[in-house]
Amino acid sequence: MKTKLILGIALAMSVVLMVGCGGKQQASTSRGMSTVADETGAVEVRSIESELLRDCQINHRRDNFCGIGQGSSTTESMAKSIAMNRAREELVQSIRSVIDASIDDATAQNENLRPYDAAARAAGTRAVEQVRNINTEEMRTTFNRETRVFTVYVLVTASRNEVLGLVERNMRQSETMNEIEHTGNMLSHIREMLAR
Questions:
Q1: Separation CA 157–CA 171 (nearest Å)
Q2: How far apart are CA 118 and CA 159, in angstroms?
Q3: 94-116, pLDDT tens digit by residue?
Q4: Interatomic CA distance for residues 162 and 150, integer angstroms
Q5: CA 22 to CA 137: how far, in whole Å?
Q6: Which of 8, 51, 89, 142 lies 20 to 30 A from 45 at CA?
Q7: Can you give the pTM of this predicted structure?
Q8: What would the pLDDT profile of 37-62 be if each residue is shown by its tens digit?
Q9: Alpha carbon 171 to its chain's center
């Protein structure tokens, strides 16, 4: 019974995690994206940010969360720092939204889990704070000669398996969720969403 519950939460989490990167396209395209033409004066117009999003969806989405950041400055190092910080913020937000969605789904499907909602969210927040293996998958830099401004675009990723492991560890260590059956129920739902 406990194994089924843990697997159910995990499966649920995987589905939400898979959707997490796919839903990002609307948020990315709604921002004012700089194009190569905007930055370099070139005739060809293409969006670097859109290319990075496409790279995330094609090459990284299955096994990773993605974050895309853009930074501009008169110094390349400052533009890179800004882009990296924004990419990490987007990555963290993506992970948090997936964890929250899977907890919402778990508690909606099993009202016995509702008393553990806040503890599960706290465990999820701690897990997000503990993600350490953030990989820079791609970085592109443009320079506008007229304004003397560098613009850096970055794609970063974090492993879905690492995040799930951290969520599971934090849920099992939670005082409120110390009843293994309820922890198992929530985790099985998360794993179920991950597998979809």
A1: 23
A2: 25
A3: 999 888 888 888 888 888 778 77
A4: 34
A5: 18
A6: 89
A7: 0.70
A8: 444 444 332 588 888 888 888 888 78
A9: 19
